[in-house]
Amino acid sequence: MRKGTRIVLVALVAAVVVVAGALALFMPGYLPVIPGAVAMDPTTLTIRKGEYLARAGDCVACHSNPGEKQFAGGRPMATPFGNLYAPNITPDDETGIGKWTPDDFYRMMHNGVSRDGSLLYPAMPFASYTKVTREDSDAIYAYLMSVPPVALKNRPHELRFPFNQRDLLIGWRTLYFKQGEFVPNPGKSTQWNRGAYLVEGLGHCAMCHTAINRLGGSKTSQEFEGGMIPNQNWYAPSLTSNREAGLGNWSIKDIKDLLQVGVSHRATVYGPMAEVVYNSLQYLSDEDVEAMAVYLKELPQRDSEPPPTSSARLVSPDVMELGRKTYAKQCAMCHGDEGKGFPPSFPPLASNQSITMASPVNSIRMVLNGGYAPGTMKNPRPHGMPPFSHILNDEEVAAVVTYIRVAWDNSGTPVKPDQISELRKIIPE
Amino acid sequence: MVANARLGTVWKHAFAGLAASFLFATPCSAAQPSEIPAFKSVDSMEARVQGCVTCHGQSGQGTSNPYFPRIAGKPAAYLYNQLVAFRDGKREYPPMNYLVAYLPDPYLREMADYFSKQRPAFEPKQPSEAAPATVARGSTLVVTGDPGKQLPACISCHGASLTGMEPGIPGLVGLRASYIVAQLTRWRTGGRQAPEPDCMKRIADRLAELDVYAVATWLAAQDPPTDHSPAKANLQVMPISCGSQKPAP
Q: Does residue B100 sit at the A interface (CB-CB below 8 Å)?
């Protein structure tokens, strides 16, 4: 044998040994046995899934009193028609839903009909939950059956006549309720369809982001066009208008952050949306939040009103000067001389749609009452804004809100002192 | 004489001017009132508590507003309990309930720790305008109590120098009379509660309306102590059992 061949052979043998060794080291083989660990059974998997979906539906927000037992109900919901009290949805046989079957639960979610056949008030978002699949409804049911039962009697609603007559709901349902599970759009991606399912179904975003009329109904033709939230007196901006909270020119990352983290480089959530992020959206997976972002970004853009005319945007020089001075003294520290803020800690005011949108309600309320972004897993120590209601009078608040709506090429309109005094009367929430 | 008197006035003015310029030169004085937002670095606790400053001041010393309390130096567990109670609606004050509604426990604890460690100077005391008998009654209730009405002395739980007691009892120094009256009234009406046994509820129920006024005006008129720190827990035996002194779960 020639010397060269021998070297090659030795090298080959060595290589085989090395590869075999590596294989022995790195092949997966059997999973190591962890003492006490048990593979999750199908029931556990279903309950886990149901818990996640209950988060997506934000059941806890209405069906629990803060700081008290989860899902035991009793939380008052102020409506223009009187107070509603969310019922106990723990599996207590007598006072909760312990005797409900999966069929009862699905009929409630899908048709808005309770176990005893009574019609639900539309404060329960069954007009959205009707889109939830039977499989997901069953999972939520399984989860609710697994939580500790709490014996707590439901508090009767306190609705004014005639709204306390449940038969009237037949009329309401004819006008505003369309029953039916979500049907995927074959022309769109799986991701878009997942987002649509979550936004239109469990997320029940339309409950606030579609205007509610005097009968407590909302029209699908105006879906996501924004509106005042009754009794909470916050304005839920339009998701379809780039002049409001339309997301057409947002990056997917900023939309995701706003929904899941509560803060982003474009804006921050406060008020009712902070509650949604705190109780619901922060718990959703990155994939699901991204799907929602993709769907929301693609919502068709339509403006219900034309942009403000230049005469509507005229501001008297005195007001502008008072606004500029107040801004420099009280606001510039956090939001910057040029309104750029320190995002995501302190939101920008320049080119911020929520500042310039037609309704100035949210900006005025923020100046009066301040606000903290919700503390979330991805932003557990949020920055906050102090109240100025005791420091600035109506003229000063009107001037400073006017200033931030028109300065730095912002395209908003001025606000008047009497708008401030109206909003001062509202209890912060 | 006339000239002398005039000269005297001039001197007075000059002195006042000097005093004023000295005041303005001191840090944290009129140049930057403590209720106006200010911080050095965005990623700091100082920047994060700017949501508190228009009512409680940059270091929790309170502001010129007579209602909002000084929170600096109060025991951390007391401040934490209040923040949790505000968040969960157990202590009702809508502006506070709203601000902390969506903040998690660990962050509220961090905020409480932050203000418990602050030691800003006290605001000037409030001279009492109460009648001498009322002043005497206030002094008695705070320092010795009223055994006939089963009222222990304030100092037996709120600390000998009224700076509070670790972990859960607040200091009463540096609080204004209007705030103390409002709080004692809330204890009486159930608007404020503490974990059972709710000692302060039992005491507030035994106070007559005039007692509330007497205690509040007397407390607000006292000189602040040199050491702001709360008394250590359980050096003294408390005359009445308090749920807020139990170790946190």
A: yes
